[in-house]
From TrEMBL:
This is glutathione transferase. Residues 85-208 form the GST C-terminal domain. It comes from the Eukaryota. It catalyses: RX + glutathione = an S-substituted glutathione + a halide anion + H(+). PANTHER family: GLUTATHIONE S-TRANSFERASE, HEMATOPOIETIC PROSTAGLANDIN D SYNTHASE. One of its GO terms (biological process) is glutathione metabolic process.
């Protein structure tokens, strides 16, 4: 079966999908639209293929699936990354939704051009991120045995959060895994998984 994943030439919302496809041993065509200068409109041919005129979306077996979380969750279920029961699956959903909120808090920093304003914004978002998200996620992992967010094996919640932390290192220079042992253990579990490690080693180098 041929899989075609469409997104910009960056990690963003598509990277957890790429990582999970790699984890599942799926060969896929990684179709990347130019990202710069921002905002860069989608090429007309890609936009026309997307149901909602946006990316990411994926085509396979005569089907098309849009929206990043719908795609990520679909393949997480396919490759047994949704926990061991319905409650754990719901926990995965809860934590991924919270990671989305965490990531969105950093979005304004990407577009800010004024150095003084950017520095102040970084200080404020870093402080609020530690209090509202990172310390709580760290506690959840430690209370769950110190390795995973949910259950006793890796889930898509781990992959999604680890990639968000990794992207923060790339874009903002943050090193939150050095501050929180639970986050570091989860992060290392994800990026030391052989198939994911192989994908990360070979993936294109991008600014975002």
């Amino acid at each position: 079966m041929a899989y075609k994943l469409y997104y910009y030439d960056g990690r963003g919302y598509a990277e957890p999908i790429r990582m999970i496809l790699s984890y599942g041993g799926v060969d896929f065509e990684d179709i990347r639209a130019p990202m710069f200068p921002i905002p860069q409109p989608l090429p007309a041919d890609i936009k026309a293929k997307s149901t909602w005129g946006q990316v990411p979306f994926i085509e396979f077996d005569g089907k098309k699936l849009n929206q990043s979380l719908a795609i990520t969750r679909y393949f997480a279920k396919k490759f047994d990354l949704v926990g061991s029961n319905e409650f754990e699956a719901a926990q995965c959903d809860e934590y991924v939704d919270t990671v989305v909120d965490y990531v969105k808090a950093w979005f304004p920093l990407v577009m800010e051009q004024d150095a003084e304003k950017l520095k102040k914004m970084e200080e404020e978002v870093t402080k609020s991120s530690r209090e509202k998200y990172l310390s709580k996620f760290n506690a959840i992992i430690l209370e769950n045995g110190g390795q995973f967010l949910v259950g006793k094996k890796m889930t898509w919640a781990d992959i999604y959060f680890a990639q968000a932390l990794n992207n923060g290192e790339l874009i903002h220079g943050t090193k939150f895994t050095e501050e929180y042992p639970g986050l570091k253990a989860m992060y290392d579990n994800v990026f030391n998984t052989p198939a994911i490690k192989k994908w990360v080693k070979g993936r294109p180098s991008t600014k975002f």
